[in-house]
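Fold it.
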Amino acid sequence: MKNEEDRNQHFYICCCFTTDNIFLEDYKLHVRFVSEQQFRLDYQAVLRRLGCITDRQFDDVLNKIAQEVDRRRYLGVKSAERAAAIRDIYRPLHPHVYHLQESHLAPEFKQIVEYCRSGEASEEGLVGLLQAEAAPRVYRFTLFKKSFCEELIEELEHFEKSSAPKGRPNTMNHYGLLLNEMGFDEGFVTPLREQYLRPVTSLLYPDCGGRCLDSHKAFVVKYDMNEDLDLSYHYDNAEVTLNVSLGKDFTEGNLYFGDMRQVPLSETECSETEHRVTEGLLHRGQQMHGALPISSGQRWNLVVWMRASQERNKLCPMCSKRPTLVEGEGFADGFTDRSGVSAWLNTSCVLT
């Protein structure tokens, strides 16, 4: 019954989506933009220290922010348009990878899930079946068979070469794909979250929504010597994150984890974690992390931001305020309206 309720939910975005956590790549800085006056007061001195000295450089920053805000305002509509076009024109190379099958999963992972479903499962017992990393509450396990990872990458590369429109994951990853637009949500990612991952996260992360994950955002990111090499230090718009290394052959590029985002950087020690092909890493979405540069080859990662409306309805993880709801497409950003009166009528937050 719970899964059926999840599928019937209507999901929303928080109003802060168009103002908060805008990433300035040239300065490796996340900013909030409400007005030019506010932005100058909050960030002009910081940007000067980072090398944004001339008026032309500052105007360039403002132009890039305007472009990003505009992209976010119409993201849902544009994404729906791309998904419709993909359904019309794209023909998959490997149709079976769009539907999760037990044969895709590593035997070790199936054993872990079977344990979690048993009546005698405990957090302590589960942790004994996983590889605990040096960073707190980061766990590693083999998730997929290598043959499936290879076929999935072949499908992704086939799609990349096609004429179908492509949506990129976020402002920090320039090379990658949104899996919901490709049609992976219903047959692959949703059953993976509901049937396999939620039994695990229920034991590992009960304090941050692990028992009630009811939506997600799933995407793949690509690192290549001629494209993105690394990923800056950040936290996710998620309660729990799954990050799977799909391949191909690459060297270095370890992930690194710090503390939760509320802890000052000066008080944080980071720990490196090797990310091997076929392995998944689970961590709390609000835990700071990044990816070091690869030194050769190419790497594809599957990332699933899993969200629990029961948690984020109380406090938006991106603006740390009670969310003001705005209509969204699909799973949107995982907020739900339990009051029955949606706050999207607040015209100061309308996205279109």
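The CA atoms of residues 100 and 188 lie 5 Å apart.
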